[in-house]
Amino acid sequence: MDFVGARSAVLAVLRGVSAGDRSRLLHWMRTTNDFDEFMLSNNDVVLRSIAEDLRNCLPIEAMLNSEHLAIKKILEQPEPTVHVDAFLYDDDDIIDSLCEKGKMSRNYCVVCGSHKTAPLEFISHSFSLMELKFLYQYALPDLTGKILVDVGSRLGAVLFGVLHSDICTQASLLQNADVVVMNNVFEYFLDRLEQARAWEFISHNMRKKGSLLVTVPSLEESISNLQTDILLSQWVEEMKLDYDVYMEKDIDREALEQIHLYKIL
Ligand SMILES: C[S@@+](CC[C@H](N)C(=O)[O-])C[C@H]1O[C@@H](n2cnc3c(N)ncnc32)[C@H](O)[C@@H]1O
User: Fold this and answer.
1) Of 157, 90, 82, the residue nearest 122 (C-alpha)
2) Over the stretch 125-171, which tens digit does the pLDDT of each residue have?
3) pLDDT tens for each residue of 43-99
C-alpha cells in the first residue's frame, strides 16, 4: 500500500470507530510506544543487535579491573555513581528489567536497612545510540574515502577496528586522519599530567588543515584545568552544531550538547 492509500485507510478506521472511542484511539495514537518498531531503520536494528551480542559476553558493569583510574574516579564522584554503558544499555526497558531482577539498581540506600532510597548517578564510557546517530547522520559530513580515528575505541561503538596502543605513540595516524573522534578519552583514564601530555601530543600532530575533530566535552572544558601551552584559537575553529534535529520527546539534549565539532586551521 502506498502513502495515499495508507492515509485513506487510517482515516477510514478513525471514521469507523464509535464516537465515544475515537478520542481514546487518538490519544493512544499520540502517546503509544507501539509504533517504535516502525521508526527503526535497518541501521538501528544492526547497532542494537551488536549491543545485544556484547551485553551477552560482558559483565553487567562493562568495566575491566585494569581500568583502575576510571574505577577510582567513579568512586570519588560526589554522588554515588555507577557505570552503565550507554551503548550496551541504551534502552530504559532493559535497565528496568535488570532492576526488577535485582541485577542493576537505579537507587541506593541512604540509611542502611531503611526503605529510604535516592537515585544513583549513571555514567557511561560509551556513546549512546542517539549520540552515535547524531554524530554520523548530522554532525559529520560524508566520510567516503576518509580516514577516521576514534581515540580510545573501547567497545567499538564509534569505530569497530583494532589498533591496540597509546594514542601518544601514533603520530602518523593523527597526522593523516581526516576525522578524529574523542569521547571523554582522558579524564577518567589518565592523571592530569598525563592528560596534559596527551592533549599536547594531539594538538602537535593533528595539524591537517580542514580535518575535523569531534570532542566530548568541549576542548575548552577538557584542557581548562590542565597545564598546557595549547592555543585553541590558533589550532581549531569550532563549527556550530544544530542540536535540535530530533523531534522525539525523550531526547537527551544535554548529552547532545556535550558533542563539539572543530575544524583544524
Ligand atoms: C570514554 S571511552 C570512549 C569509548 C568510545 N570511543 C565511545 O565513544 O563509545 C574512552 C577510552 O579511551 C581510552 N584511552 C584513554 N587514554 C588513552 C590513550 N592515551 N590512548 C588510547 N586510548 C586511551 C580509555 O581506555 C577508554 O577506553
Assistant:
1) 82
2) 999 999 999 999 999 999 999 999 999 999 999 998 899 999 999 99
3) 888 899 999 999 999 999 899 888 999 999 998 988 888 899 999 998 888 888 888
191 lines ligand 1 (CB under 6 A): no
- Which residue, judged by its Cα, is nearest atom 10 of ligand 1? 185
Centroid of ligand 1 to alpha carbon of 224 (angstroms) = 19
Q: Is 157 in the pocket of ligand 1 (CB under 6 A)?
A: yes
Nearest one of 71, 53, 51 to 61, comparing CA atoms: 71
Rounded distance from Cα 182 to ligand 1 centre (Å): 8
**233 and 145 in one domain?**
yes
For atom 1 of ligand 1, which residue has the closest CA?
125
Ligand 1 atom nearest to 157, measured from its CA:
9
Domain boundary pick from 123, 141, 166: 123
The set of residues, in sequence order, having a beta carbon less than 8 Å from that of 42 and lying 6+ positions away, is none
Residue nearest to atom 26 of ligand 1 (CA): 152
In the chain, how many domains are there?
2
User: Which numbered atom of ligand 1 lies nearest the CA of 126?
Assistant: 9
Task: Give Cα separations from 257 to 52, 215, 245, 248 (angstroms).
Answer: 27, 11, 12, 16
Encoded amino acid at 147, one letter? I
| Together in a domain, 143 and 213 | yes
